[in-house]
């Protein structure tokens, strides 16, 4: 099963829930966050920046200007073999929960049309019956 960490906020122009990185950056930008929490957040976010590629695309369209579109269809999922990434994701989820940002873990074997894939993640445009949150 592939795993996706989501919060309740809906991605603009879709029916899908936003991933947990949005919550992490939102918490980091709050003025009342203590230094210890900021250090933990930055440690986790820096680790992901170093160890998880930003997919070059989130939709299957190759039409001119696809990269300028506001909405994307592709959703990011961790592969079950990405054990270190998943451990970090659960750590970050715990930190977010401690500060009132509820994150759920979705699981699915049927993701959709694969847009991007690497050793640790898959981005897929969901089938009509695929989970989106």
Short description:
The protein is of the alpha+beta class and 133 residues long.
Amount of helix? 25-40%
| Number of helical segments with 4 or more residues | 3
Structural class: alpha+beta
Q: What string, H for helix and E for strand, traces the elements in order?
A: EEHHEHEEE
Radius of gyration: 15 Å
Query: First CA to last CA: what distance?
Result: 15 Å
Are there runs of 5+ residues with pLDDT below 50, and where?
A: none
How many domains, as an integer? Answer: 1
Relative strand content: 15-25%
Number of strands: 6
Task: Give the key terms.
133 residues; alpha+beta; 3 helices; 32% helix; 23% strand
Topology diagram in text:
Elements (H helix, E strand, L loop, with lengths): L1 E9 L6 E3 H9 L6 H17 L23 E4 L4 H16 L5 E5 L4 E5 L3 E5 L8
Antiparallel strand pairs: 1-2, 1-4, 3-6, 5-6
Description of the molecule:
It is a single chain. The chain has about 130 residues and is an alpha+beta fold. It has one domain (about 1-125). About 30% of the residues lie in helices and about 25% in strands. It contains 3 helices and 6 strands. It has helices at about 20-30, 35-50, 85-100; strands at about 1-10, 15-20, 75-80, 105-110, 115, 120-125. Strands 2-1-4 form a 3-stranded antiparallel beta sheet. A 3-stranded antiparallel beta sheet has the order 3-6-5, with no helix packed on it. β5 (about 115) and β6 form a beta hairpin. The longest helix has 17 residues, at about 35-50. It is globular. About 25% of the residues are buried.
């Amino acid at each position: 099963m592939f795993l996706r960490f989501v919060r309740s906020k809906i991605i603009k122009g879709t029916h899908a829930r936003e991933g947990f990185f949005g919550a992490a950056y939102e918490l980091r930008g709050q003025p009342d966050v203590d230094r210890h929490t900021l250090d933990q957040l930055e440690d986790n976010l820096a680790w992901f920046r170093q160890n998880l590629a930003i997919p070059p695309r989130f939709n299957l369209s190759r039409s001119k200007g696809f990269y300028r579109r506001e909405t994307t269809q592709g959703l990011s999922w961790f592969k079950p073999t990405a054990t270190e990434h998943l451990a970090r994701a659960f750590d970050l989820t715990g930190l977010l929960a401690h500060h009132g940002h509820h994150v759920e873990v979705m699981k699915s074997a049927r993701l959709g049309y694969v847009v991007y894939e690497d050793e640790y993640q898959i981005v897929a445009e969901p089938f009509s019956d695929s989970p989106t949150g």
